[in-house]
Description:
single chain, globular, 9-stranded mixed sheet, Spore Coat Polysaccharide Biosynthesis Protein SpsA, Chain A, alpha/beta
Amino acid sequence: MKVCCIIYHSNISKKYKKQWIIEFVKSIYEQTYTNFDILECCYDNSNMSLFKNIFEDKKYIFINKKFSNNFQCQNYIFEKIFKKLDYDVCINTNIDDIYDKTRFEKQMNKIKEGCDLVTSNYTIFQEYDNNKYERNIDILNGKKLENDYDKRLFFTKLVLEKKVNYPFSSTLFTKKCWNESNKKIEYPENLYLSKSILKNKIKIDICTDFLLKHRIHHNQYSNIYKDKII
């Protein structure tokens, strides 16, 4: 099974502190599951690479290609890894995240069991006025999903709901999810994910462990909290 971990970014020196980037890279480097390649795309003109010379034992693909926004870049990457490079599984990541070292392993175990799209519980955290705030997000929040329809409907509402800053980077999915969706996606990633979930040929599941910490900060495109405390 060919697995690719993807990272895409632009203007990172303006958006992220150096320590944030180090924490993100380290959390990928320390993963207990190691059978994956890395594709990194810098979609500005800086030619900035985060993973060059980090993994000596992995295939590393770096692309510097200008895009207007992260949605265009994301679409290009999915087309690249699934259609042109023929990968089976995509591990999505984001510089705003710090991953538990078992994240890849636990989600890949779900894929090996036959799932097509896997997500997990997560923690959002924020550094505000020299204080650190954290909040665990239990996706199900005690809900019992009685059947497959309820499960798909719940997950669709989850990724479209704006009350929770759901990180798309918590997902891991197979080529089948991509093949079952529109390959020329022109809308945000949460709608793409929702469309894949609603396809009844796609098997979805959740890891109930809290497998990532998602940073909230004012430079985030998706930050629904702005300057408020989470």
